[in-house]
């Protein structure tokens, strides 16, 4: 097993479940830090700011700094800046997306945006969606922070960001550019911000369709852990395999 300089962890199902930490992950992360490795957390969640996400980890006994947290919102803001420069952005989303866009120098507008960015927004109303559709039809760049159509809660599966982006797509006929996993933008952002080469990085995740695919597409090693969405037994059904398959992170030799 290789010695990786930068470990990129998915959160839910890998590091914690809901509000409960996964002990084996906490232990491995502590050991990696002691050994002088870099640790990053890579999440499709667009709603939380890095500092709030770090607080959430801290409450579970996992030391994390905001700089170590890569969200689909940060990667979205960086992607727009790199592709187009500073833009007038019409945003559907919460605090995490607003802070990321403004932090990158974009201006938030309520209509007529040069870009329409869609993250999860639990206060969403008809007017915001209508305005977003009109702007996309008029040629605005259409971005979805992530494509997850549903996410699990105690009540069952509820609409995710991808469901709202899908509504705009079905109204306008325009497909969004998707930023979160399984796309590679968050990993690319970590690599460029922290000057890391691909062979120094590993992605750890529980979901084959998002985490492992993102790592495979980006061209870094991947570790699948059987503590969340995809069961180890089901990995055989996929063409490309992760570099490592573990039932828990306690099985990593440290
Ligand atoms: Mg997960």
String of helices and strands: EEEHEHEHEHEEHEEEHEHEHEE
Over all CA atoms, what is the radius of gyration?
A: 18 Å
- The beta-strand count equals 15
Q: What is the beta-strand fraction?
A: 15-25%
Distance, first to last CA: 11 Å
Mean pLDDT: 96
CATH superfamily of the largest domain: HAD superfamily/HAD-like
Total domain units: 2
How large is the count of helical segments?
8
Main sheet record: 6 strands, parallel
Give the distinct bound molecules.
magnesium ion
Shape: globular
Top CATH class of the largest domain: Alpha Beta
Q: What is the CATH architecture assignment of the largest domain?
A: 3-Layer(aba) Sandwich
- What is the CATH fold-level name of the largest domain? Rossmann fold
> Percent range for helical residues?
25-40%
Question: For this entry, what is the oligomeric state of its chains?
Answer: single chain
Task: Describe the structure in your own words.
This protein has 254 residues and is α/β, with parallel strands linked by helices. The protein has 2 domains: 6-44 and 181-251, HAD superfamily/HAD-like (Rossmann fold); 84-178, HAD superfamily/HAD-like (Rossmann fold, 3-Layer(aba) Sandwich). It is built from 8 helices and 15 strands. It has helices spanning 23-34, 50-59, 72-84, 95-103, 126-137, 161-172, 185-193, 208-218; strands spanning 6-9, 16-17, 20-21, 38-43, 69-71, 88-92, 107-109, 115-118, 141-144, 150-153, 156-159, 177-178, 201-205, 221-225, 244-246. Strands 5-4-1-13-14-15 form a 6-stranded parallel β-sheet. A 5-stranded parallel β-sheet has the order 7-6-8-9-12. A hairpin with a 2-residue loop joins strand 2 and strand 3 (20-21). Helix 3 (72-84) runs parallel beside helix 4 (95-103) and helix 5 (126-137) packs across helix 6. The longest helix has 13 residues, at 72-84. Magnesium ion binds next to loops. Pfam families: Hydrolase_6, Hydrolase_like.
